[in-house]
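seq:
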Amino acid sequence: MSSNQVEEKLMINIPAQTDEDKDDVFVENNEDDRKKTVMYSVDETLPWHLCLLLGFQHYLTAIGGIISIPLVLAEYFCMDKDTLGVSEVIGTIIFVSGVATILQTTFGIRLPIVQGSTPTFLIPTIAIMSQSKWECPYKVAREIYGNSVNFTDLGLPEPGSAGHQEIWMTRIREIQGAIMISSLFQVVIGLSGMMTFALRFIGPLSIVPIITLTGFSLFPVGSQLASGHWWIALMTTCLVLAFSQYLNNIKIPVCTIDKTRGCRRSRLAFFNLFPVFLAVIISCVICTILTVTNVLPNDPDKWGYAARTDSNLYVIREAKWFRLPYPGQWGIPTLSVASVFGMVAGVLAAMFESVGDYYACAKLAGAPPPPAHALNRGIFIEGIACVLAGAWGSGNGTTSFSENIGVIGITKVGSRRVVQVGGCIMLILGCFGKFSALFTLIPPPVFGGLFMVTFGMVAAVGLSNLQYIDLNSPRNLCILGVSLFFGASLPFWLQGNDAVNTGSDVLDQILSVLLGTSMFVGGVVGFVLDNTIPGSERERGIRAWREESLKPHERNSMADASVYNPPFLKTCLYKYKAFRYIPICPAFLNTVYKC
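struct:
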């Protein structure tokens, strides 16, 4: 069953005439709908072997998006040819994603929602690393002298040496400090309940530029990786599209275990579950064949060399079997005001993206829509997880993974235990150095082709919010066009011009990072115009957006929302009246911030 069919089935017994009718029917049919749409609900525990298999499936679905971030950041961190260092960063981000997933499913929103690295932190990081003070000397040397340059003749340490490691570790430490401090902003928003209040002023026309420009701004990265061998990149893109779109309804016979009927034959939409990994595996096999037969050139200066699979084999030999990531492994994080302010743009984008994921996950997992205290606590725990990700030095923050929400809709397994097991798998495998090193063998053009689809989907998710607004309104078209075009144009212009000169070095750096981040510029323009240009709530899409995501707060009874209550403290949280005024507690009265 596809996710669209699941959503249609969810609404089958809910009349849409009035909000009052919806409220009455919601409580009565909530349990029936939950049974129809899921095989295992949020609170149910599966047999251990099923938890293990389904948890590993969630891990496989998320790992492609998780490892893509450090592979993109390697160039901006100046990790030139230090593939072993890249593998260690990959192991760190897998480990941190496991920690974040366990925290979120246990103490946060308590939905079966996977946490992992996010492109929303990628754009501010690139903007920060694009400043002249962080310019990579190895990149400059190659642009001048070509790939065969001798770095020692130029006074640069050889790639992979201790001196080179200090160069890229310095850059990671700068991003570590920026993520840790800016994520405290997210912690405060979740703890104070400000998110519920802020949603009164933020509508689709503010969200669309933020998320859409995040995807569009990453096209140079995908293009550069794909340029190593465009035919391999295009083949990977076509394979992903074939498996996810053309073959998504083809089901393979498998043996499944049902609660009532035991082991029975079923059919699994295998291609729809693993389109990314199938495409990557097939592309890598083909690249290996072309490498062994010497169809691909051996000369690093020739086009097509980037598609070889034997250029990083030494990483497997040198990688440690077991390596436990730890806070401060790259050194003590550094702080600069400009980097912190720039990273706040990524934090804001990640928060609003997660709010939408919470409601989508609750719907597909058979849970009632998240009440205010669960939403606030989810944002709060995500902020804590981002602080930890910064401390560990993953080079990125963590947020909810939309891909894994789709897996829940397909498998009809909404148990949080499954995702908790998946988080444990991430945590364990992130400690095996040789496992993380395997990902460095994947040729860059394969990732370039993969990014054409995955980063394109990020932009498409942003554009999907246009369904709520009136696209026949000149007002909305004006706001949408100006925010997108200006949000892309100003950062593009600033990349080649040192135009920010206020007389203060600190203020210049802050403005350069903020104005160089497209999603920040576009989001601010969209927010200001949407809240200042007159327009009705229906025209702006506010009414439809709230009916979809915000009003369900008012439908939940305490019994319905009990799946969101944190463990161990249930009695204590309801016993004392003081907890009624703490926005992350189940007893919280959603009156002050009520939308």
